[in-house]
């Protein structure tokens, strides 16, 4: 999985007033969880754009006060009106502990059902996957080569080594439904 390096500066004061001042300076208050103690720091909003505003999942190489650690984004808070990032939480990764991450689904191939006029409907764009950090993938490829009209691919059909998908097993990832044009063509063919 790809990783991005981000550096932050430690925060001495933790509170609303301090956080507001940091945001005014173009910084985002952040917390690193998962270690012996929580680490409070601030990171540049510009540095976070490549990690936050993308569908791609990244490991983050954090450097705070000279201490380097590998983490993932645990939670983000946005301003309700401006949608500006106002707080971010990171989770420290341990190579021996499995971690759950939402990984994007990538559809591959061409569906025969779509070729005859069916409509491709992707219901899940990400899957929750639990695995050791070294086993995580950039995306999960789902082949739609065998999808006829009325058929679907469910979560329980996806088998990946060293990964456990935690979504409900009966959830539909992608399906091909009958389109209005295909229904009309079938009705007209039935009248003849």
UniProtKB/TrEMBL annotation:
<feature type="domain" description="Large ribosomal subunit protein bL25 beta">
    <location>
        <begin position="99"/>
        <end position="179"/>
    </location>
</feature>
<comment type="subunit">
    <text>Part of the 50S ribosomal subunit; part of the 5S rRNA/L5/L18/L25 subcomplex. Contacts the 5S rRNA. Binds to the 5S rRNA independently of L5 and L18.</text>
</comment>
<dbReference type="InterPro" id="IPR020056">
    <property type="entry name" value="Rbsml_bL25/Gln-tRNA_synth_N"/>
</dbReference>
<comment type="similarity">
    <text>Belongs to the bacterial ribosomal protein bL25 family. CTC subfamily.</text>
</comment>
<keyword id="KW-0694">RNA-binding</keyword>
<dbReference type="InterPro" id="IPR001021">
    <property type="entry name" value="Ribosomal_bL25_long"/>
</dbReference>
<dbReference type="InterPro" id="IPR029751">
    <property type="entry name" value="Ribosomal_L25_dom"/>
</dbReference>
<dbReference type="GO" id="GO:0005840">
    <property type="term" value="C:ribosome"/>
</dbReference>
<dbReference type="InterPro" id="IPR020057">
    <property type="entry name" value="Ribosomal_bL25_b-dom"/>
</dbReference>
<keyword id="KW-0687">Ribonucleoprotein</keyword>
<dbReference type="Pfam" id="PF14693">
    <property type="entry name" value="Ribosomal_TL5_C"/>
</dbReference>
<keyword id="KW-0699">rRNA-binding</keyword>
<dbReference type="InterPro" id="IPR037121">
    <property type="entry name" value="Ribosomal_bL25_C"/>
</dbReference>
<feature type="domain" description="Large ribosomal subunit protein bL25 L25">
    <location>
        <begin position="7"/>
        <end position="90"/>
    </location>
</feature>
<comment type="function">
    <text>This is one of the proteins that binds to the 5S RNA in the ribosome where it forms part of the central protuberance.</text>
</comment>
<protein>
    <recommendedName>
        <fullName>Large ribosomal subunit protein bL25</fullName>
    </recommendedName>
</protein>
<dbReference type="InterPro" id="IPR011035">
    <property type="entry name" value="Ribosomal_bL25/Gln-tRNA_synth"/>
</dbReference>
<dbReference type="InterPro" id="IPR020930">
    <property type="entry name" value="Ribosomal_uL5_bac-type"/>
</dbReference>
<keyword id="KW-0689">Ribosomal protein</keyword>
<dbReference type="Pfam" id="PF01386">
    <property type="entry name" value="Ribosomal_L25p"/>
</dbReference>
